[in-house]
Design brief:
Blueprint (H helix, E strand, L loop, with lengths): L1 H24 L4 H7 L14 E14 L2 E5 L3 H5 L7 H7 L8 E5 L7 E9 L10 E7 L10
Antiparallel strand pairs: 1-2, 1-4, 2-3, 4-5
Helix pairs in contact: 1-2
Length: about 150
């Protein structure tokens, strides 16, 4: 009798796995939406109008092992943006200190003493990758303010 029960259990699990896979590939299913929130943003899938791109200069203030405390003037303008729904998450992740205008980044992602911290996020109205964000560091490039006339 137990082998018959095992076969029924195995068949039930197989049917359930197939059903989950079918629903996981349907972009409107709850299963797809659940797993999609844990995948990285594919910026090619997001309409330009649904992306907010921001950046600020960051300068190393203190180096502690592989952790750097950096200046983050105007970071509040990024995290206080009305469409940035995951601002609390990035504030916690980067240990942002509003009073000191500083945050914490791994030293190995910085591009020298002064770098550019880029924060991109997808607005809630986006059909794909809604409310996701990504931050990355690039080299700081001085821009000329000279009038070329």
């Amino acid at each position: 009798m137990s082998s018959k029960n095992d076969k029924i259990l195995f068949a039930g699990l197989a049917v359930m796995a197939v059903v989950i896979l079918i629903f996981a590939t349907n972009e409107n299913s709850l299963v797809f939406l659940f797993f999609n929130q844990y995948t990285p943003v594919d910026w090619e899938e997001v309409l330009e109008r649904n992306i907010v791109r921001s950046s600020i200069p960051v300068e190393i203030l203190v180096m502690e092992d592989n952790n750097c405390i950096v200046s983050a003037k105007n970071f509040d303008k990024i995290v206080d943006h009305q469409y940035f729904t995951k601002a609390d998450q990035i504030i916690k992740e980067l240990e942002y200190d509003r009073d000191a205008e500083a945050l914490s980044l791994p030293c190995n992602i910085l591009e020298g003493d002064k770098s550019r911290l880029n924060v991109w996020f997808v607005v809630e109205e986006s059909a794909k990758h809604s409310n996701k964000y990504e931050y990355f560091v690039t080299a700081w490039e001085e821009t000329s303010t000279k009038d070329n006339t």
